[in-house]
Amino acid sequence: MKKILLVVLSGMLVVALGATAYAQKLEFTASGRVEVSGVMQQNIQTAPFVDGSTNSLFGGIGLTENANLDKTATYWGERFTLFFNAAMGKELSGTVAFEMDSTRWGERTPAANNTNGAFMGRWNADAVAVEIKNAYIDFGLPYIGIPIPTTIRVGVQPIGTRPWIFNTADGAGITASMKVDPLQINLVWGKAVEGLDAAADDADVYGVNTSVALGAISVGGYAFWYNMNTYPFNDANTAAYGTTPRNSASMWWLGAYSDGKLGPLNYNFDFVLDTGTVESRRGFSDVDYQGWATRVHVAFPWEKFNFGVVGMYATGSDREKTSSSGLPGTATTVAGRNSTDVDGYVIPPGSESWAAFGESLVYYSMGRYDGSGIAPVGMYMPLGNYGNQMTRGAQGGSWMAKAYATFKATPWYSITFQGLYIGDTTDNGNTVGNALKTNGTPQDDSDIGWELNLMNDISIYKNLTWTIAGGYLFAGDALDQNVVSTPGAIRNVSPDNPWIIATKLTYAF
User: What pLDDT does residue 354 have?
Assistant: First the structure.
């Protein structure tokens, strides 16, 4: 598949660039959004895990008795995204996107929790905080006798599929979109890691996503292969020729989905399976990965109301067979046993689907209310190495059932109430809670808790929206914490019920 996909994409690129150019009028447009958010919360993760891990297959909420346990945290943040597009007719355009962030108004330089220059909120301003988010060319493939309308995109671009459950990332690559009614085909090649030019230490992404429209519904499927000669992506052993990355990985994500309308109901369905292996080059046992997740959303719009239900289930791992990072040679909770299997659902390195999942405010993250585009909250948040390793994202190790109702009271105001139950699917331990039994092994509980959310959307002007929301989680035993950082010491507590109040002002233009 690797060679075929690369040849197809390269051939399309050569044909397009070899076509005769002709003059077009340049049309220059700009768009963007400014978001300012404020958050007040208690017992929601805002720091690395207690056990010091940088990946989030397991770990505590990050609560310690002498720091943030049962204390109220507040902060403000800001994000400014700006898109410029230069089009030469419908067939050719170039786009560049800039992003500027303040994860915390008043942050220090460099920001304590940010390493990518996103600290424009420092006092006296003038921060070097402009990031290149995208820079790509779009062009239609000239007609060469094959009646398949095709668009090629080349450069640093959004690369994602079904972002609320699988993948959304920005990266360098070439993608192709082809449409032959009723069939839509998308091909993807991305360069995730290059490393040394003359060494086999790179990581490539290959994917195909197809869908077909069948009246009021559409069905589709996708297959993505991550061929990672270096894993994790930030392995320091690729700094010089002659060194060898500690691990390699070959991972597949296979998915099926459907969207549409059945009578008065709107629905979305997703199923995705991950399978593959992380292989050690240092003599440790390989780690086999195989997990899955599914989600169903059904909505019933009626006059000024919209009623809906959502169900999601994602497999969890066995903590006796899986370490907190899932890497070969890393210890599990059983003395003398290293990680061998990751049966919990994981998302690809760099995927930010944990922010796109957005099913709640406390346990998960509803970005339009809690400011997740600026500083993600939610207990699942994959800190540290999410850009370099596979993580459980928003779903892994949990299941949920949700019901909601939205009432559009006026053209400028709507209110939503939702309630959901969240359960834990991790074996021989908990996904987020890290409480221990008296013998030092992890507690194994099933109840994460009940969560209630109330959200308000207010349109001040056509392009200016104010949102304010609150969430409260009646915590179950699966969130209990061992708050003693000394290895082997045990002091379990049940934190006060987590809650959040969040507001965001958004200007879109």
Answer: 83
